[in-house]
Amino acid sequence: MQKISIDALARQQLEAALASTNGRAADTVYGGHEKILRQTVIAMKAGTRLSEHQNPGDATVFVVQGCLNLRAGGESWQGKTGDLLIVPPGLHSLDAEEDSTFLFTVAKYRD
């Protein structure tokens, strides 16, 4: 059994993101390349973007703090603290409207 404070990890990652040149920081909480399930705490400085990329599997974004916009195709969904966004299949991007942290969860498809 292992216990992890997502709030504490999110605070650490936000500090790292604010100090980084690209305005982002991340730490994998669970999983990795060898597992199907992967959970990562990601922090983004206000005004930064995760550019358009392919959805690697079933994925969610749980907003720990801040405000984000998830974009896919011509649609956009805003997520604020406490919101859970379901990442649609296909290409998508993520923009931070405020300094934000989120828990990204993905169950990757296996070939």
Features:
111 residues; mainly beta; Jelly Rolls; five-stranded antiparallel beta sheet; four-stranded antiparallel beta sheet; 9 strands
Task: Describe the structure in your own words.
By secondary structure, the protein is mainly beta. The protein has one domain: Jelly Rolls. It is 13% helix and 55% strand. The protein has one helix and nine strands; from the N terminus they run αβββββββββ. The protein has one helix spanning 6-19; strands spanning 24-30, 37-44, 49-54, 57-65, 67-72, 75-80, 84-87, 91-96, 100-108. It has a five-stranded antiparallel beta sheet with strand order 1-2-9-4-7. A four-stranded antiparallel beta sheet has the order 3-8-5-6, with no helix packed on it. A hairpin with a 2-residue loop joins β5 (67-72) and β6 (75-80). The longest helix is centred in the first third of the chain and has 14 residues, at 6-19. The chain is globular. It starts with 5 loop residues before the first helix and ends with a strand.
Q: What profile does the largest beta sheet have?
A: 5 strands, antiparallel
Shape label: globular
Task: Count the domains.
Answer: 1
Provide the residue-averaged pLDDT. 93
The CATH homologous superfamily corresponds to Jelly Rolls
| CATH class division | Mainly Beta
